[in-house]
Amino acid sequence: MKCRLYLINEYDTMIKFCRFLNAAVLSAALIFVTFDNLKAQDISKDIRKLAQTMYYMNRYYLDTVNFTQISDEAVSAMMKKLDPHSAFISAKDVKAMNEPLEGNFDGIGIEFAIINDSLSVQNVIAGGPSEKVGLRTGDKIVSVDGEAISATNLDIPRVHKYLRGPKGSRVELGIFRRGVPEILDYTVVRDKIPINSIDSHYLTPDNILYIRLTRFAATSYNELIDVLRSLSRKPSGIILDLRNNVGGYLTAALMIANEFLDKGEMILYTEGLRSPRKMEYADGRGVLKDIKTAVLIDENSASASEIVSGALQDWDRATIIGRKSFGKGLVQQQLPLEDGSVIRLTVARYHTPSGRVIQAPYEMGDAAGYYKNFYERYKRGEYFSKDSIQLPDSLKYQTLRLKRTVYGGGGIMPDIFIPADTSFYTQFYGELVRKGIITDFANDYSDKHRDELVSKYKDYNIFIEKYNVTDDLFGQFLLYAEKKGAKPKEGQLEISGNEIKRFIKSLVVRNLYGFNRFIEYLNRDDREVQRALEVIRGKE
Prior knowledge:
Elements: H1 2-32, H2 37-60, H3 67-80, E1 87-89, H4 91-102, E2 104-107, E3 110-115, E4 118-124, H5 129-133, E5 140-144, E6 147-148, H6 156-163, E7 170-176, E8 184-189, E9 191-194, E10 198-203, E11 208-213, H7 220-229, E12 237-241, H8 250-258, E13 266-272, E14 275-281, E15 292-297, H9 304-314, E16 319-322, E17 330-336, E18 342-351, H10 367-379, E19 396-398, E20 405-407, E21 416-417, H11 427-434, H12 437-456, H13 460-466, H14 471-483, H15 492-513, H16 515-523, H17 527-537
Parallel strand pairs: 11-12, 12-15, 15-16, 16-21
Antiparallel strand pairs: 1-18, 2-9, 3-4, 4-5, 5-6, 5-7, 7-8, 10-11, 13-14, 13-18, 17-18, 19-20
Helix pairs in contact: 1-2, 8-9, 12-15, 15-16
């Protein structure tokens, strides 16, 4: 009888727990979604099933159960039954996920490279903690807080562990500096380090502004305005490079698109089964409305990149150049769970002003098939030939000013198609890139000859004009590559040799003159950039 009473009380406790969980979850859900009675009853039953299962596991299972892990995996599995972009993010991953979009982290303020198991300072961020104490480009960090770190199988996560930390914390660095016999000791106080989403910008001699935006972060709009304010005069044209930009914050995309559009022009609209249509319009206060613009996109441009390029294409405000974009046009709402984890739930679809759906087709619960389509596009030749892209008449739309034909069906189809350039690619070249052999060689060479090169080539323009990767240096590189296990087969150097030399030179440019100049140099032979310049100059 006593045992029977115990079980009754236990069951009663379970029922109360289920009711509590059910009420809590339903209350949270109803903040965002209105359910009819039938659906509310259905979800109530499903919630009770989950609660009962976990209760029985907790009460009767023979071993200790990690319920945090189980619940994480259960929620993750549920998200996988939905669209490819709905996801569960554990509490420990939330901070790492948000960091690149929030625009800063705490650290010492350097860009680094790992060269022969040594930590080499490639750039000291202006105004950062390292610059304040006198660290220089070319310095090698040989110890951190008294621990020797050279020749210890360094990798990027380990370096981050050494150098990042809470704002205000101190780190003791031992520095080897070429030409100085003793190890120099520095104390660096960590601080907020900005992560710029505009990693490169420059003006051409004829006043065309090139801007490379790598993501749409919280700081992106302000970075754009800072670039514009730094100019002594209004640019004659703008190239906005969104290649390999996978998106980010919608707000940043709206604010940047707003700079190019007239008052009242729609930027996008969103709509979903339980999300009524919502439209976003330009306010007319943008400063770039009358500047000729080209936007560069490729197969890796997604989400916010597609919103901006789609809006500017639909209003005939920019020429879109490159290859068809990824096709990520689902609106996610990030919903917090009580343990600090979140679910990123798709609630609507993005549409361009002309009505095109940005999202590529997908099957519910088939994320693998969805991402495989990226490879299938490659196999079909979509990256190399515009004719390989099937665009039926049903997907035709018209731009809103000039009534030009544009296409829906997922992604943004460029106005000018530029095929991917693989003419220089060989297995040997691929191996060099994958193993980082070209980068390691160029970094080592730059480090050893920095003073000599800076003395001989007074500035970037002189270096570009006068410096070449000699046959002797290229021979040294091939010997270096062979020691690393990479040796060209017959005919491969004829195909890849010039590109390898260009790559080496570009990396020396980066190490001597900074990342901005590195991109500027690469763009001299970039077909998309050169075509954009032709369009803006009216030569097409």
